[in-house]
Amino acid sequence: MAQPSFTAIVEALPETVPFVGPEAIERQTGIATRARLGANESGFGPSPKVIATLRDATPEFWTYPDPENFELRSALAARLGIASDEIAIGEGIDGLMGQLVRLFIEPGDVVVTSLGAYPTFNYHVVGYGGDLRFVPYAGVHEDPEALAALARETGAKMVYLANPDNPMGSALPAADIARFIAAVPDTCVIVLDEAYLETAPEAPVPIDTARPNLIRLRTFSKAYGLAGLRCGYAIGNRRLVGAFNRIRNHFGVNKAVQVAALAALADEAYLHWAVDAIAAARTRIARIAEDNGLTALPSATNFVAVDCRRDGAYALAVLKALAAEGVFVRKPAAPGLDQHIRISAGPDAALDVLAAALPVALAHAQSAP
Amino acid sequence: MAQPSFTAIVEALPETVPFVGPEAIERQTGIATRARLGANESGFGPSPKVIATLRDATPEFWTYPDPENFELRSALAARLGIASDEIAIGEGIDGLMGQLVRLFIEPGDVVVTSLGAYPTFNYHVVGYGGDLRFVPYAGVHEDPEALAALARETGAKMVYLANPDNPMGSALPAADIARFIAAVPDTCVIVLDEAYLETAPEAPVPIDTARPNLIRLRTFSKAYGLAGLRCGYAIGNRRLVGAFNRIRNHFGVNKAVQVAALAALADEAYLHWAVDAIAAARTRIARIAEDNGLTALPSATNFVAVDCRRDGAYALAVLKALAAEGVFVRKPAAPGLDQHIRISAGPDAALDVLAAALPVALAHAQSAP
Fold first, then answer.
1. Does this UniProt record's set of keywords contain Isomerase (chains A, B) (predicted)?
2. Exposed / middle / buried, residue A106 (Cβ in 10 Å: 0-12, 13-18, 19+)
């Protein structure tokens, strides 16, 4: 039958979901999620002031959002001490990544990342026909020296590094990041994913918007507790950031997002409280893991990677046994990382469920064939 | 200085905003908008039940949205009597258009639309390197026969038609649309924009998801009063609709959108009330126009195209004079349509401002050099 043909790139792409949501798992298994600790959201939620502001704003949702995101960009610029045209707002970091790849990657262009790093970045690269090249982790850290070296060797158009890192929760010293940035050619776009910035122990490398090839991505989804609204922002020089205006869905960042992110940014006291609460939750997750004979990795993020101390198949069995108990966690799949499960920080009620479920899950996993 | 190079397509694109928002106009002119009647929003707002539901849901915005939009797709499917995998949800019709173009248009592919039709569609076509070809309006209607003919002649990959039409507010009979659909080759994607469906006088052509090349786009931005949240949906056969899953930003439709659209869909009584209120506002806009010696066109939408009965420059002067009075309206720019201004339906308070401002604006425009 005659039908329209997709582009050559699209024809080769699978229908996919980079992350299957816990809602889908519930629909498939019929098991209600009792502890939602898998998506690195913040169970501590957004600031009560954000909730109040959002509630008050709902009657205004009949107007289109400001396509320039003027107020939010201005507030972020003031906070960061840069110009507002050095900031772009997007539908989460995911949305910004898709736009970034579209701006720079032609079919066959090389893009360098770590094996086991953020899969949605890879999804977008493949979606525009990029040629992904992988550098293995050095233990539980991404390997910035090797990433920069591979970018140079391959003439890569783009290189990705997250600091702090997902899925391992590790952080590299700012000095290492500065060396990495200097070691990447100016013609190669550096995508520095700082989604977990707020929970990191060390201040990041200073912002330098003169650099022609550095885009830093940040989000309101983690410490700010607003994953449901999807608000990410990109920081970089005027040429890079302005280019989003050539291709973006200008009205894509909706009014709820604009209102909530502004309010979240204004409530610094809540952010500090949430960061402390996340740190306390990490400590408790580590204790729960260790009480059960597992090893918790140090974390600079809002989750803890827990080494199940056997192979990837075993860690997967633990994850599945936790799911059967209504505890939603995720795990890395890459070789060398796959013996870990990844548990998000959350309030005590959720961690109580985890504490009760983990020994049961381990017993199940150990008795599995 | 060495810097990363954009793709060839992006290099040629300007930084742009398809529609300058009234917020930007306020920032530029310092004149506060007293009547927001330019963006075809609904000043009647969403249902009070939607507002209440949204308010109740705000504490849950810490979790990522369901990337499958399962509940909303299911509800729409039930309403429309089709399968849920024949529906895709996107960040407004704008977002869906960008994805559709990306799925099908390679550089140089021909895309047919009407001269003066929705500019954001054109923005996306140009953004993927498509070759836009234009058919003039036939009076105040798009010309479906000519659109189909040009699509055939040029071997177009895609053809766009809005019914009801924006910016003229006209509607074509369903029989004409059915003939148009049949006249377009099966290899050419038909983008049937039904943003203004709810306010149309006649039922649309029946949904036929067996057709391999028809995508219908609908929205919660117009009669449902939720422009600020940006929720559009696409209806079509499984192959077309499923393809969005190859490229979309899966978490791009946020939780506020999902919650609000579901609640809006459930409140049919409010929709009927809003459609009636919009119809009454159209009647009043027409009366205001005619009281001032202008001609209001019949409207099947939530706005009225008003013929200023001189040339495009005069209509632009009227628009600017209205803006000086704090009345935000828009106007078509295409030859043959540009003597019109486009006034959105709104509540009486806004139309009172319009009624007072229009004679003043006309006097200014008439005395302009």
1. no
2. middle
